[in-house]
């Protein structure tokens, strides 16, 4: 049974599991409601790059952005956030520089965001937190970015915005043409809760109970990530989530999950 709808977003009263490689643990949420039910598609507009700004180039050097939202040939952006559109109700978001930012007191909310970038040839990745290289290859020997031969996607990104964390979106144009860009978001604003029964969490993490899984590009547990997990949810050092156990380790897992749940914020 699928837990997602036609948009690939989690339906109400189903589970969302966020796996964090750096902790070898997961966050488990029940989706209580979707606050934006019926308006999941948001035609945002061009990438937030402005005429005259400088972007790096493949092979070195820089180029000037020729017009708003145009990514120069062989150009690589820095880490971008998506600001509120001036003169619209979006100016009332918590942080006008980033429409997806949630603060530490927003623990009952998550943004599940699918970023569609046009033209779809554009390379894209998200860095959590911003300006930190998290994409790695071959046991972390090789750090990766949009300028690397691998470690990026083209035209589409999917992520979940954890509160109190600033994400950085990076894009690259490896063609010999200046590209006029456009971004469409397919998103859900979930009202969520962390289940309080350790047996249920174990069943989700051993896939006995269906859940939508997302692996976050987090290879290094940066201080900003620790702060978010601690200040938003109440996770603590060495227990930054619910560790994954084998199916035959049920009793051990449940004992640990009980201890983790005792420390979490209500």
Question: How would you describe this protein?
Answer:
With 266 residues, the chain is mostly beta strands. It has two domains: 15-31 and 192-263, no CATH class; 41-190, no CATH class. 12% of the residues lie in helices and 32% in strands. The mean pLDDT is 95.
End-to-end distance, in Å? 30 Å
Strand and helix order: EEEEEEEEEEEEEEEEHEHEH
Number of helices: 3
Beta fraction of the residues?
25-35%
Which tags fit this structure?
mainly beta, 3-stranded antiparallel beta sheet, globular
SSE diagram, text form:
Layout: E1 15-20, E2 25-34, E3 41-45, E4 54-57, E5 62-64, E6 70-71, E7 75-76, E8 109-118, E9 123-127, E10 136-137, E11 142-143, E12 153-154, E13 156-161, E14 168-172, E15 179-180, E16 182-193, H1 198-205, E17 212-215, H2 223-233, E18 242-243, H3 250-263
Parallel strand pairs: 1-17
Antiparallel strand pairs: 1-2, 2-16, 2-18, 3-16, 4-5, 4-7, 6-15, 8-13, 8-16, 9-12, 9-14, 10-11
Helix pairs in contact: 1-3
Quick overview of this protein structure:
This protein is mainly β and 266 residues long. It has 3 helices and 18 strands.
């Amino acid at each position: 049974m699928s837990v997602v709808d036609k948009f690939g977003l989690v339906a109400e009263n189903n589970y969302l599991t966020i796996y964090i490689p750096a902790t070898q643990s997961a966050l488990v949420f029940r989706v209580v409601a979707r606050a934006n039910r019926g308006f999941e598609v948001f035609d945002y507009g061009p990438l937030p790059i402005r005429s005259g700004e400088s972007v790096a180039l493949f092979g070195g050097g820089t180029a000037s952005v020729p017009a708003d939202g145009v990514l120069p040939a062989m150009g690589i952006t820095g880490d971008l956030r998506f600001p509120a559109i001036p003169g619209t109700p979006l100016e009332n978001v918590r942080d006008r520089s980033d429409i997806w930012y949630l603060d530490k007191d927003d623990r009952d909310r998550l943004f599940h965001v699918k970023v569609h970038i046009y033209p779809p040839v554009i390379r894209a990745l998200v860095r959590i937190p911003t300006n930190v290289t998290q994409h790695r290859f071959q046991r972390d020997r090789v750090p990766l970015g949009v300028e690397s031969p691998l470690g990026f996607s083209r035209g589409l990104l999917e992520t979940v915005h954890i509160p109190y964390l600033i994400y950085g979106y990076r894009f690259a144009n490896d063609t010999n043409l200046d590209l006029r860009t456009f971004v469409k978001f397919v998103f859900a604003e979930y009202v969520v809760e962390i289940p309080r029964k350790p047996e249920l969490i174990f069943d989700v993490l051993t896939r006995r109970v269906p859940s939508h899984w997302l692996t976050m590009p987090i290879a290094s547990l940066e201080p900003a990530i620790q702060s978010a997990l601690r200040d938003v949810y109440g996770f603590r050092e060495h227990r930054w989530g619910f560790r994954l156990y084998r199916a035959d380790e049920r009793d051990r897992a449940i004992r640990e999950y009980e201890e983790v749940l005792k420390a979490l914020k209500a």
